[in-house]
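Memo to structure team: turn this sequence into structure tokens by end of day. - J.P.
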Amino acid sequence: MLARKSIIPEEFALPGLVSRVPRKPVFRDRVNKARFIAKNGSCNLAHKNIREQGRFLQDVFTTLVDLKWRFTLVMFTMSFLGSWLFFAMGWWLVAFAHGDLDSDRALGVDQCVNGVKSFTSAFLFSIEVQVTIGFGGRMITEQCPFAILVLILQNIAGLIVNAIMLGCIFMKTAQSHRRAETLIFSRHAVIAVRNHRLCFMIRVGDLRKSMIIGATVRLQVVRKTTTPEGEVIPIHQIDIQTESATSSNNMFLLAPLIICHVIDRESPLYDLSAMELQCSDLEIIVILEGVVETTGITTQARTSYVSEEIQWGHRFVPIVTEEEGVYSVDYSKFGNTVKVATPRCSAHELDEKPSILIQTLQKSELSHQNSLRKRNSMRKSNSMRRNNSAILMPKVQFLTPEGNQNVAVT
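Reply from structure team:
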């Protein structure tokens, strides 16, 4: 039995129409890859298969400072408890060797340490010696020279433990990255035309009134590259210069500043257009360093921008204004941007064809003028409507019962 033919011809059926519709090129989304520097500045790097673990013990102080707070507090508590218990065992052995634990010497005659009759009393005496409390109930005598040596050793050991642990706590509370929490970066970076050149820009600021002395900003592009010999470099770091690069490259970070990088021939962004930038896997790392004015400690704040966080054709809005003789900074607009006329081509193409930039700016100027004309025409039409409505308002006469005429304009 033959299949029944459709009434509608095959070329006008839905599959045929779909096949003839011209398809637009589809750009696949870039696979989300791990970034090297997080937005908060932490390094996204895991160390595995470290065989020489003993190297960390060679620098015990730095290892203790790098530990998390819960481990540091545990080490702080255990160091004091361990030293007290260790010397308590020593005092108990001294008393046991001298026979002070016998009931015959309960009155404290010829004892090495008066009042040490058990391990508990030896532990309490160890605490009194190390923290210099001295309640007066237990004291050392001149009967045992060895007890005097133990007293000297415990004092020295107690001073060492206090110096290390208190220094560790102080360094953890005064770490440089705590000051970096008030150094902020804009959420997005922008690429726009400045001084007739295509520029990559970010905004940095300091929330505290105490300044960062000798602040410097470094920009690096990190991406995976392959050499002509076939060697794969997973983390290829390329330094890029800022517009205000000087011999010292220091900034006066009094108010939020816009850091600008001119995309020139030496820039790794020179051959990237707006479309190619979105498809690339590069990451731009920003490092801000300086000396804290109040403590003199060097601090460092870091962040990074991937291709999705770079806005092409945008510019940061101004946030510093002068109000009654005082400069005011509105941090609510710190990361706000506005669209500006920017060519979508790369900086390389702009250098070869400068007319692209001129045409883009002319189109922007024309569109701006047209928008102004539309606004003015709308304002004029609205004002004319109001005037005509006021002129054409009729006058209504009201007659009172007495016959008087009261005229009211409505």
